[in-house]
Amino acid sequence: xxxxxxxxxxxxxxxxxxxxxxxxxxxxxxxxxxxxxxxxxxxxxxxxxxxxxxxxxxxxxxxxxxxxxxxxxxxxxxxxxxxxxxxxxxxxxxxxxxxxxxxxxxxxxxxxxxxxxxxxxxxxxxxxxxxxxxxxxxxxxxxxxxxxxxxxxxxxxxxxxxxxxxxxxxxxxxxxxxxxxxxxxxxxxxxxxxxxxxxxxxxxxxxxxxxxxxxxxxxxxxxxxxxxxxxxxxxxxxxxxxxxxxxxxxxxxxxxxxxxxxxxxxxxxxxxxxxxxxxxxxxxxxxxxxxxxxxxxxxxxxxxxxxxxxxxxxxxxxxxxxxxxxxxxxxxxxxxxxxxxxxxxxxxxxxxxxxxxxxxxxxxxxxxxxxxxxxxxxxxxxxxxxxxxxxxxxxxxxxxxxxxxxxxxxxxxxxxxxxxxxxxxxxxxxxxxxxxxxxxxxxxxxxxxxxxxxxxxxxxxxxxxxxxxxxxxxxxxxxxxxxxxxxxxxxxxxxxxxxxxxxxxxxxxxxxxxxxxxxxxxxxx
Amino acid sequence: xxxxxxxxxxxxxxxxxxxxxxxxxxxxxxxxxxxxxxxxxxxxxxxxxxxxxxxxxxxxxxxxxxxxxxxxxxxxxxxxxxxxxxxxxxxxxxxxxxxxxxxxxxxxxxxxxxxxxxxxxxxxxxxxxxxxxxxxxxxxxxxxxxxxxxxxxxxxxxxxxxxxxxxxxxxxxxxxxxxxxxxxxxxxxxxxxxxxxxxxxxxxxxxxxxxxxxxxxxx
Amino acid sequence: xxxxxxxxxxxxxxxxxxxxxxxxxxxxxxxxxxxxxxxxxxxxxxxxxxxxxxxxxxxxxxxxxxxxxxxxxxxxxxxxxxxxxxxxxxxxx
Lengths: 525, 219, 93
Fold this sequence. Notes:
Order of helices and strands of chain B: HHHHHH
Largest interface: A-B, 49 and 42 residues
Distance between the termini of chain B: 55 Å
Radius of gyration of chain C: 18 Å
Number of domains of chain C: 2
Oligomer: heterotrimer
Largest sheet of chain C: none
Shape of chain B: elongated
């Protein structure tokens, strides 16, 4: 008897209060959003094969990159790891029977779907062409798209992440098994905890910003309207107060996943555990103090720009500490190159490039040149796709045996990891060069001399599509035909590996007692 | 959490070990929710503060048109309802059902009175032509009517958002009234009333800041 | 809890309620006096005292666990980040 065969029928899934089933609801819905956003990206890259704007009109192109950004950021990247693996694993890692608020957990999925419905409506009802940032006054006064529906969707989905965040924080504080002290927690839990803090502290500011934007657009209650003396840059401040920390909502869980995978496949205790835990919290904190680096050319005060630039460099310190600690964990480890490890190693390499180029664009003077070019596009895709999506794939493969009770086909998974890594670099590395040479983002036509690199980039996007479609096929295949996995196929440590795969409905028959740290790889389990 | 299950097992939700753990979790959850509410309002207050900084003279002329005495009386009503809910919490703690019902009803009545007066205030502003949206004529006679519009936009947006929270709070209190009326389990009702009371007190706090920043700062 | 204690707590709430009304009245009366540049800081401080009274007593923050107190203080800290860094821009333009 496990959570999968504890009940059958649609109702047993749609009304479930089991955190593991809620995780599945999220898995399925965000996979849908991922491929929708991917389809929009495909059209963008197809258009950019030729310098002339021939495949899509400029309006259609604007709608495609907006759709891509909105769906990927708000409906895939932000919920991704917390809502799926976080939901599934947090109670298991804490030795708890469920989340603190199971009903709230299910409700947050319904809220998520409601938000998604609004955004899809917006797409169908006439497209959104504001980009994912909804900058005023374009979004309030000039855009002809269905801005209101899209912003409402994003507003609603914000509630979903607030509810998830509250649930995770309370669960981590109040539901730990006896003996599971804070410094015995897996880093994955630390990462979920810090992410939840950001969700709780930042998302409400986005909500009010979108409310103000909504009333301005819907009723003409001007708040940012320059005709009344309103200031569109105020919108940018409020927007980035959320949206910069949101980068760490995407990234911190990824770091948690990578820590688990690296420790397991190097079969070693994670190096510098406390430094890792505190650097997660430090990144979450510093992430709130740097939002102005998105606004260097917006007309904000030069002094504020200098302060934001300096504060931005702070983030690189804990980030670099984490990279060094992962490398030190690998040193003299018994490394196995299973697919989760390949994805995790891709994360380290790609995140490193993304992070270092982040220092470039955080530099006030240099950013004046780089702003709104493909350099920025390449930088944040290295963080979000190269970093976060690689870690998502690492986690998905790592815990797949636990979640489904089946092993995925290892050879295909390694092939997919390698295709994704190669395809990703082919897509986005040329964009650094394009941006450096001055190609601006968000145009459907470009100068002739940029064509060769754009063709490379589009070819890489094709490879990426193959790399991401492969897992969709073989993971579904493995649900039925994969070999049965034991409770602990990777010889990993941690409470989630002490229960059967798939876990029983109540997780633990008796509340476990914990008397060792999460990474006791030097002792046999 | 280390304690074995005792006689309270019947009413503890399945994911918890003890009622105490459940109550601690609920309380922490409510406080975290209030943090999100505080940050929600702080975004609007930040925007208001920025414009006060830029257009202080116009904003203060516009603020003088508001009915500050009426709203001050309304503040008294809301503060009284805050006292009433605190006394309801205390009565529930003492497991005194009738007294709890009485104070909860008083809280709700005062809350409804507040909303009624607020509605009347909106109506007077509508009559005076101070509603700068929905194609209403704007009859502000002071200097700089464009920037004054900005002030009234904030006035309606922020007080409207507060009123929305009042309505949500009233619905929560109504649920508490029903739960107190049924009185299934004394300890449980006391805790539910306390958590609901937190939300009502928070709505009070927001009003104190709304009143100060919209009605008094410009005077 | 004894009946005595109960009355004491009730009296405390009523006393604080009267204090809140007094502060509200003082803030309103203050608008009749021309306090010049001090007017805004004074009005905001009085409102802040009212907020602190409601939070510590009516929301029982003083009797709450350290964790809940940290959560409450955290919200203030983050609101401060929002205001300070945004005004870092608007005050230096």
